[in-house]
Amino acid sequence: MKILILNGSAHRNGSVSKMLKEIRNNIPESNSVEEINVYDLHFAPCTGCMKCRSTGTCCMQHDDAHNFAEKIKDADALVIGSPTYWGNMNGYLKMLFDRIVPVLMGESKKGLPIPMQKGKKAAIAISCTTPFPFNIIAGQTTKNKRALKEILKYSGYKTVGTMVMPGTKMHNDISDRLGKKAKKIAKRISKN
Ligand SMILES: Cc1cc2nc3c(=O)[nH]c(=O)nc-3n(C[C@H](O)[C@H](O)[C@H](O)COP(=O)(O)O)c2cc1C
Questions:
Q1: Nearest CA to ligand 1 atom 31
Q2: pTM of structure
Q3: 3.40.30.10, 3.40.50.360, 3.60.10.10, 3.40.50.800: which CATH number matches 2-189?
Q4: Contact at 8 Å (CB) between 145 and 124?
Q5: Which mutation among 39, 85, 130, 171 tests ligand 1's pocket best, with the greatest number of atoms within 8 A of CB?
Q6: Which of 44, 95, 124, 169 is such that its CA lies 20 to 30 A from the CA of 63?
């Protein structure tokens, strides 16, 4: 299995990076794993021209979003990590997803979505400063997760697990609970 990890955090030793590392460390070595941090990519924002909906490719000047789109096509599974920003995924990460729509989703003549990555697996790792249970009550991680799942669902991915770390102002270490979760996700994502 070729597993692509997309890290949407600017903090190389932050909560999201730690969760992704824990998942990665539990993926059997027989799999190939590549991790890309969105902050290492240079790309322009989507201009909303909608040409990709009929051509199937992004017509903007070639940049890292095109390169990343090729990696999505090539990978069998995707793990996305994102901090919660304003009850959503990180903005730069969202910008990347906006740029790679044609590899994720096609559109019928009537505008209905056609999943382009059907059958592939995905997992999510998210964090926020709001402590438990307010991350749920106030919908912080819940909305972030929903937004990521929206993309994954319409792209055809099956989400096999979600890791959530709330309360990161107080601590951002991997608890026993999160460690177990990471193991489960690693097992499920690497299973053929
Ligand atoms: C621009 C911005 C917006 C944020 N919005 C929220 C939010 O809506 N809810 C929340 O609980 N934390 C919010 N946070 C805090 C981050 O989610 C939190 O610090 C997260 O754990 C960072 O993870 P990282 O260090 O792995 O990147 C925000 C942080 C930033 C910089």
A1: 85
A2: 0.98
A3: 3.40.50.360
A4: yes
A5: 85
A6: 124
